[in-house]
């Protein structure tokens, strides 16, 4: 297999509140021999909120990000579902509307850039599964996750709207997604089957509709716990933030104790592939997660 | 008896509940032979006509236009008269359960009480508000552009699939939901309509309007007419700013605050967006979380104090600043 090379759009959280997401992603790439160039020029994707304020500006800035992947001639990969969604929405809008593309390129020309539409955009989860291959990952497992019941939490923006994502997410069924489950099995963990795996975590209305946000996150957390999950795993750092950080207040609202580690997808893979404790970065979690590392290593 | 290759013998499960007589709902199984052209509606008809006459569901046009037969199958909202059954069986490994759109609203089996749907729909005035002469002498013509601006929002058949797929609405019964908001867009963008401002004000209200949308895209996935309601919700967000109707509150500052951050850093300043959206007085409720995040290193002291511009900056930041300057179209 020739070496896989990608341009990584980190997004904001991996550079700030979830440094463990970036370090574990790079550790996984290193273990698998995937070459990654970080797009240091990239900005925020707008996270669906800039899009609410100024849709045109959001397209301009996302197109600029994609330009830098195009310059490298690489597929742009994301490690956040919402980055994936907003980058893909801009790509789709520009590739299907020549007039909009021309209007955006008029702006980009002012800074010497041009959006061509030549780079694909893919979440790292689907790079691992569809381009690297689960069988090859399985061969590289040094710390099998066989002790753990792991609840996959897919996150909305990788699976819906399916029409937008199907070319980059292996035609995942939004009502019965399987990619994370299959990844867990490849790492020899036990996937937990539960209703909430493809539901919304409520992150995006955390500030303006906190009650809604906490109920949605609470439903998913409780569902995972009730189905005997030892941990949850998600490809989206926003789902991680919502469900890892607010377990106290969500527990109060739900009327019961909630305590469960919520891992980033690359942290789980890094753990199984034998990355260092520092790279996996479990210490950055608000809910207790650190013991997972020693538990996984213990015979 | 030899089966045709094109038919498949399967066990179909159906949710059964009669609100007048049953204490709890139950699942009943039916052995059916499914052909390649069978629709979910054909399966329901066969259950009723050949197995159990008491099985109840709504149906009328059988042409995907009356919106009566919306149900869920394995959590997927479908219009029974439009959804091919084999396609569904393939999607779910031949194991499907017919369910009502909303279990808590069931009257009997697939039939639910859609009162909340119709009430919310009515709230947005889903019609053109205009002074029309009782005996007009000429047509009120619409241009192609004016029609295109509707973005197929007028294809809604009020089936309720998006409404009952919306998790925000389940958590907050006051939220108008995707179908009503789609209708609000449909009539607010209509050049003949005089109530756009009224609708935009209503749909900008906290707790009931567009700012309660959780951005899960369940509505886009649920719509049997491919309307993409969340696209119209985003349009309503944008129109609030375009029409100067948006008030300064947590939600609008949160949306606009992204520009403020990106101008300074390229990236979002995660701590600043909370402070800016909430205001210093509103910050007290986040102190406990902020403390925990700081303790875990989620808010960190990499190169300065949190909340004081210690965010990593994008390379070539000046490009981002210039693009914002020349491309920003809306203001708060």
Write the layout of secondary structure elements.
The complex is a heterodimer of chains A (299) and B (332).
Chain A: E1 5-9, H1 19-32, E2 35-38, H2 50-53, H3 55-72, E3 75-78, H4 81-96, H5 98-109, E4 121-123, H6 124-139, E5 149-152, H7 156-159, H8 162-165, H9 179-186, E6 190-191, H10 210-226, E7 231-234, H11 237-245, H12 247-254, E8 262-264, H13 265-272, H14 277-280, H15 291-297
Parallel strand pairs in A: 1-2, 1-3, 3-4, 5-6, 5-7, 7-8
Helix pairs in contact in A: 1-13, 3-4, 3-5, 4-5, 6-9, 10-12
Chain B: E1 7-16, E2 26-35, H1 40-51, E3 70-73, E4 76-79, H2 85-91, E5 96-99, E6 106-108, E7 111-112, H3 115-123, H4 144-148, H5 167-171, H6 177-188, H7 196-203, H8 218-222, H9 229-242, H10 250-265, H11 270-282, H12 287-296, H13 317-327
Parallel strand pairs in B: 1-5
Antiparallel strand pairs in B: 1-2, 3-4, 3-5, 6-7
Helix pairs in contact in B: 3-6, 6-7, 6-9, 10-11, 10-13
Would you give an account of this structure?
The complex is a heterodimer of chains A (299) and B (332). Helices cover 50% and strands 10% of the residues of chain A. Chain A has helices at residues 19-32, 50-53, 55-72, 81-96, 98-109, 124-139, 156-159, 162-165, 179-186, 210-226, 237-245, 247-254, 265-272, 277-280, 291-297; strands spanning 5-9, 35-38, 75-78, 121-123, 149-152, 190-191, 231-234, 262-264. With 332 residues, chain B is α+β, with helices and mostly antiparallel strands. Chain B folds into three domains: 8-112, Roll (Ubiquitin-like (UB roll)), CATH 3.10.20.30; 115-129 and 145-242, Alpha-helical ferredoxin (Fumarate Reductase Iron-sulfur Protein, Chain B, domain 2), CATH 1.10.1060.10; 250-327, no CATH class. Chain B has helices at residues 40-51, 85-91, 115-123, 144-148, 167-171, 177-188, 196-203, 218-222, 229-242, 250-265, 270-282, 287-296, 317-327, and strands at residues 7-16, 26-35, 70-73, 76-79, 96-99, 106-108, 111-112. Chain B has a five-stranded mixed sheet, covered by helices on one side. Chain B has a two-stranded antiparallel ribbon with strand order 6-7. The termini of chain B are far apart. The model of chain B has no long low-confidence stretch (mean pLDDT 93). At the A-B interface, helix 2, helix 3 and helix 10 of A face helix 5, helix 8, helix 9, helix 10 and helix 11 of B.
């Amino acid at each position: 297999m020739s070496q896989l090379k990608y341009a990584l759009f980190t997004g904001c959280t991996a550079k700030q509140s979830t440094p463990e997401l970036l370090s574990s992603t790079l550790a996984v790439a290193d273990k698998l021999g995937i070459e990654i160039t970080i797009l240091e020029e990239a900005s925020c994707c707008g996270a669906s909120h800039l899009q609410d304020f100024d849709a045109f500006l959001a397209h301009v800035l996302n197109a600029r990000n994609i330009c830098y992947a195009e310059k490298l001639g690489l597929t742009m990969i994301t490690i956040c579902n919402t980055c994936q969604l907003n980058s893909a929405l801009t790509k789709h809008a520009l590739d299907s509307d020549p007039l909009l593309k021309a209007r955006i390129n008029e702006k980009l020309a002012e800074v010497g850039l041009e959006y061509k539409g030549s780079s694909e955009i893919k979440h790292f989860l689907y790079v691992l599964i569809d381009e690297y291959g689960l069988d090859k990952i399985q061969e590289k497992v040094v710390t099998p996750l066989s002790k753990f019941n792991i609840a996959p939490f897919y996150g909305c923006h990788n699976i819906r709207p399916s029409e937008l994502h199907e070319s980059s997410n292996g035609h995942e069924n939004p009502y019965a997604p399987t990619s994370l489950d299959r990844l867990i099995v490849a790492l020899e963990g036990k996937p937990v089957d539960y209703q909430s795996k493809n539901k919304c975590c409520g992150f995006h209305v955390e500030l303006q509709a906190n009650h809604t946000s906490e109920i949605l996150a609470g439903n998913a957390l409780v569902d995972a716990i009730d189905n005997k999950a030892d941990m949850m795993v998600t490809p989206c750092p926003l789902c991680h933030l919502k469900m890892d950080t607010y377990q106290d207040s969500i527990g109060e609202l739900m009327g019961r104790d909630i305590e469960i580690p919520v891992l980033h997808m690359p942290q789980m893979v890094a753990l199984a592939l034998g990355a260092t404790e520092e790279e996996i970065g479990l210490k950055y979690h608000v809910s207790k997660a650190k013991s997972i590392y020693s538990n996984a290593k213990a015979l | 008896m030899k089966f045709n290759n094109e038919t498949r013998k399967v066990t179909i499960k159906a949710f059964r509940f009669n609100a007048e007589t049953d204490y709890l709902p139950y699942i009943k199984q039916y052995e059916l032979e499914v052909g390649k052209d069978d629709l979910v509606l054909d399966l329901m008809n066969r259950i009723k006509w050949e197995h159990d006459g008491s099985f109840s569901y709504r149906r009328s046009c059988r042409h995907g236009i009356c919106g009566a037969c919306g149900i869920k199958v394995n959590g997927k909202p479908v219009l029974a008269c439009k959804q091919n059954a084999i396609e569904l069986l393939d999607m779910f490994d031949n194991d499907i359960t017919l369910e009502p759109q909303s279990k808590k609203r069931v009257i009997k089996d697939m039939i639910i009480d859609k009162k909340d749907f119709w009430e919310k729909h009515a709230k947005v005035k889903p019609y053109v508000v205009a002074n029309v002469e009782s005996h007009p002498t000429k047509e009120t013509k619409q241009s192609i552009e004016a029609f295109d601006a509707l973005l197929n929002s007028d294809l809604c058949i009020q089936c309720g699939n998006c409404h009952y797929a919306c998790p925000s609405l389940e958590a907050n019964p006051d939220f108008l939901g995707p179908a009503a908001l789609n209708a609000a867009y449909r009539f607010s963008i209509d050049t003949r309509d005089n109530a756009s401002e009224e609708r935009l004000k209503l749909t900008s209200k906290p707790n009931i309007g567009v700012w309660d949308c959780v951005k899960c895209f369940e509505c886009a996935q649920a719509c049997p007419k491919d309307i993409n309601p969340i696209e119209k919700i985003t349009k309503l967000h944008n129109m609030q700013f375009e029409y100067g109707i948006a008030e300064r509150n947590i939600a609008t500052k949160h949306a606009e605050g992204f520009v403020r951050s990106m101008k300074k850093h390229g990236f979002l300043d995660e701590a600043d967006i909370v402070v800016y959206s909430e205001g210093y007085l509103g910050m007290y409720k986040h102190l406990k979380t902020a403390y925990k995040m700081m303790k875990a290193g989620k808010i960190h002291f990499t190169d300065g104090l949190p909340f004081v511009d210690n965010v990593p900056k994008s390379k070539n930041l000046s490009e981002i600043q210039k693009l914002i300057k020349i491309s920003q179209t809306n203001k708060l």
